[in-house]
Amino acid sequence: MTNMVMEDYTQSNENFNHSSKERFAELIENTCGRYCLGPNPSLARFIYALIFLVTCLLAWSIRDYGHNALSELERLKGCHGARDCLGAEGVLRISFGCFSFFFLMFLSTVGTKKLEDTRNNWHSEWWPVKIILWIGFMVIPFFIPSAFVQLYGKIAHFGAGAFLLIQLISVISFITWLNECCQSEKYYEQCQYQVMALSVMAFLASIVGITMMYIWYVPNVSCKLNLLFITLTLVLLQLMTLTSVRSKVRGGFLAPGLMGMYIVYLCWSAIRSEPQTEFCNKKVEAATSADWLTIVSFVIAVLAIVIATFSTGIDSKRLKEQFTYMFKKTEVESEAGVPYGYGFFHFVFAMGAMYFAMLFVSWNSQNTMPKWTIDVGWASTWVRIVNEWVATLVYNVFLVMTVWMLMAPLFWKSKREADPVE
User: Fold this and answer.
1) Cβ–Cβ contacts within 10 Å for residue 200, how many?
2) What's the sign of the alpha-carbon dihedral 405, 410, 411, 417?
3) Distance between CA 57 and CA 63 in Å, rounded?
4) CB 319 within 8 A of CB 168
5) In this structure, what DSSP letter does residue 130 have?
6) Which pTM does this prediction carry?
7) What is the DSSP string of 203-227?
8) Mind giving me the DSSP string for 175-192?
9) Please, what's the b/e burial string for 376-392 (b: 16 or more CB within 10 A of its CB; e: otherwise)?
């Protein structure tokens, strides 16, 4: 009897261990099948973002520490004693390599719509080949003549501007989409109090931000430029709010509140980009003279570049859906295809390569940047301010276009009813 009980126990224990091993093997197989084997576009986008981050850090290291670490470049004839391959020009060379890599990916993946497409495998797999390709694109620009690199630096101004415009449209599209979603019949009853609270918080944050900028950056009336920037931001905030309320389409203050926070941030970043030697920024210079704070600000700025590029790159489907709804007035049918536009994704990263180059050299390839600084100089200041003004203009135009698309059918219907029947 005892032996039978022991045999049953041993057999049940073996069965349990066998079933546990099977479940564990199945879990490993499913995990690898999802994340290791086969194309995985969701994982691929993070790998591309990591490549972009490493490229940004490489450009920064060549700019700030290249003279000490890359003395071998003196042997290259095109570098003229490493003078033309380090500093600002070194940043442009790395940027050109990054641009070439992602532009090649753009050309090879644009138009991909189905997961069964071979280009989906190229986008989501073949990582050893693409890593070797990326390394090649990082090395080849250092053999290119300096004249071509300077020409690329001039073209990069337009590419960086295109990136800012795409990012701006993406931000406005997201804000208007969020507002429309919260104001729809499906979610209005559930979200009305949350939307009200978020709108109030957004406006309060904008007003507090403007007030603090007056305190920090306008210590006296002689700071006329800062006073102009901040006051104009306050006027633009009121203008956007008035336009949204008068349109009677967006419903509520969520969209202008969030846009207000965005333009206040742009104004703040523009003033922060002013050279710290100016009289109006002496107070700020004293507060930010600590090395650790400068380093933290630099790290946050670099991460912000990568996050902005990544979030804008995967935004193609929502932009397409919103513009299709605006111009065709038809519901966008969901299709079993790629999760985001591969071509658009790589194109944004290619423009982002030009953008980070402009930030590292402060929009001037002849500029010598201090260590651990980014986007500092009068050129950077005016780029930020113009970006703020364009953001307000695009938002109002976007709002007017939406109003016209919604009201045009009613206008033509009433006109047809008013015309006499022949």
Assistant:
1) 13
2) positive
3) 10
4) no
5) H
6) 0.75
7) HHHHHHHHHHHHHHH-SSTT-HHHH
8) HHHHHHHHHSTTTHHHHH
9) bbebbbebbbebbeebb
If one compares 184 and 197, the residue with the highest pLDDT of the two is 197
pLDDT in tens, 245-294: 665 544 567 888 888 899 999 999 889 888 864 546 544 444 344 456 66
Instruction: Give the pLDDT confidence score for residue 12 in this predicted structure.
Output: 57
Residue 208, φ and ψ in degrees, nearest 5: -65, -40
Query: In terms of C-beta density within 10 A (0-12 exposed, 13-18 middle, 19 or more buried), how is residue 369 classed?
Result: buried
Let me know: does 120 contact 39? Beta carbons within 8 Å.
yes
Burial class (CB in 10 A: 0-12, 13-18, 19+), 66: buried
- DSSP category for residue 331: P
d(CA 146, CA 169): 35
Two tokens at 184? Answer: 């729809």
Residue 4 pLDDT? 56
Residue 247 CA to residue 176 CA, distance in Å, equals 13
Q: Spell out a b/e string for 320-354, using b for 16 or more CB atoms within 10 Å of the CB, else e.
A: ebbeebeeeeeeeeeeeebebbbbbbbbbbbbbbb
Decide if 82 contacts 67 (C-beta within 8 A): yes
CA 11 to chain centre: 59
pLDDT (tens digit per residue) in 383-418: 999 999 998 888 877 776 655 554 445 444 554 555
**What's the rounded Cα separation, in Å, for the pair 19 and 25?**
10
Written as six digits, the tokens of 343 are 């071509």
Cα(312)–Cα(319) distance, rounded to whole angstroms?
A: 10
The span from the CA of 366 to the CA of 298, in Å, is 21
**What pLDDT is recorded for position 85?**
65
- By the 10 Å C-beta count (0-12 exposed, 13-18 middle, 19+ buried), 405 is classed as middle
**Residue spans of beta strands (DSSP E) within 100-187:** none
* The total number of residues written for the chain in this structure: 422
Q: At 114, list the tokens.
A: 């189905």
Phi-psi region of 253 (alpha: psi -120 to 50; beta: other; left: phi over 0): alpha
Q: What percent of the chain has pLDDT over 90?
A: 21
Q: Could you give the percent of the chain with pLDDT greater than 70?
A: 67
Q: Which of 197, 363, 402, 373 is nearest to 301 (CA)?
A: 373
Give the whole-angstrom CA distance, residue 227 versus residue 217.
8
